[in-house]
Amino acid sequence: MELYxxxxxxxxxxxxxxxxxxxxxxxxxxxxYKNRIPYQPESISLPWMPNAYYKxxxxxxxxxxxxxxxxxxxxxxxIPFISERPNGVFTRHTLDDWHRSNMxxxxxxxxxxxxxxxxxxxxxxxxxxxxxxxxxxxxxSTKNLGERVNDIEYWKSELCLELDAMIRETNSLTDMQxxxxxxxxxxxxxxxxxxxxxxxxxxxxxxxxxxxxxxKQLITxxxxxxxxxxxLQQCLNTVNAQLMCNKEARxxxxxxxxxxxxxHHIDNKCYQLKNTSRGIHYYRGVERIDATISVPETWxxxxxxxxxxxxxxRATSAKLRASTESILMGTADEMWRQFSKVNDAFTSRITExxxxxxxxxxxxxxxxxxxxxxxxxxxxxxxxxxxxxxQLKVAQTRLDERTRRPNVELCRDTAQIRLVQEVNExxxxxxNLHQCLRASEDMLQMLVRSKAVLEHxxxxxxxxxxxxxxRCMGMRKTYPSTVQILGYV
Length: 489
Prior knowledge:
Microtubule inner protein component of sperm flagellar doublet microtubules. Interacts with TEKT1, TEKT2, TEKT4 and TEKT5. Interacts with CCDC38. The chain is an all-alpha fold. Helices cover about 70% and strands about 0% of the residues. It has eight helices and no strands. It has helices spanning about 30-35, 50-60, 95-185, 190-200, 215-270, 295-400, 415-475, 480-485. It is rod-shaped, with a radius of gyration of 68 Å. The protein starts with about 30 loop residues before the first helix and ends with a helix.
């Protein structure tokens, strides 16, 4: 609010009221009145109280004519300065001049007072209009600032909501990134286990070094784990790239929000400024400086584009998280299925090897029993041969002794015939016994060889069982759980 009589502090764009006609002051020179130029407003930068007003008020009034209605005395009636009367007594004006001068002064005074009253009324009206115009203009500016503050508050709230949503989404995607990294690291253990199982099974011996189903399943498991690692690594790279996009969108939101907060603080301060506020000063020429770089449409579109970009990145991030979760579940299920197949193949192979080992042990026991019996029989045959040889010696000794009978006593009697038959029978029996002995010894050698084969095969089966059951299955018991593969821990 401005006090009356103080110089104005602002200029307005509405048209300036026409200047009030002010009668000039009296002058001693008539030509100065006749050739007087009417008052014209100078530059709008001059004060509203011109210096001419004070100069005119400072002049002393004279008796010169002041208006066109009284042009003055004609030159023929001007009283001469030097009187023609004798004795040096003379007068310059007549009584009529004196009355006319008084009337002129009265009329001039009334005209001046009337003009002054009219000027005061115009000034009061002008001051009132200026005050109302300034109040209306300041009110409109304050209203516009308030609307601007409300607009900034709205976009600030939108930015805060979107920024919170982006932070939550980024945190969720970061957790997914950590799960992917843990899942990728957890696949290294199963890969090494499968690889070591293949290397350990290369230490099988003999006939057990076969390309069985276990080896096929182990090779398939290694291929699956490599494929899973490639997919997880590719997904991790995509997640890292998306995190960078989320970070850029978040930085744009934070920068825009910081600018909005600063702008809100400045506009709110301007909105609360009044004529009685502290810290208001003149800043000459500031209205001619245009430092703006946007209009309300581009200003709102900039923030809307930032929010839309953030929403797009959030949608992409959420979709990526869903696909990553699906990949984690799928890869974990695929690895577990193959892990179960390998374990089933190991179990089946171990059972088959154990059955073969049991049968080998049974056959080995029977072979050993048969070897014992053959050895016993061989001993019996050998004893029988020895006994028959003694009988043969007796029979042959008898025959030899009877050959020493004299002359006719060399009779081919029944005893002689029987002794010959006995020797032949014993020889035949010995031949049969020797054949049986050789056959038994050959059979014993075959049994011993079969025993050696069975024992060697038993060693092979024991070694295969130790590799498959103790080393391989022992390592596969430490296989990570589903929770570890999915990256929840």
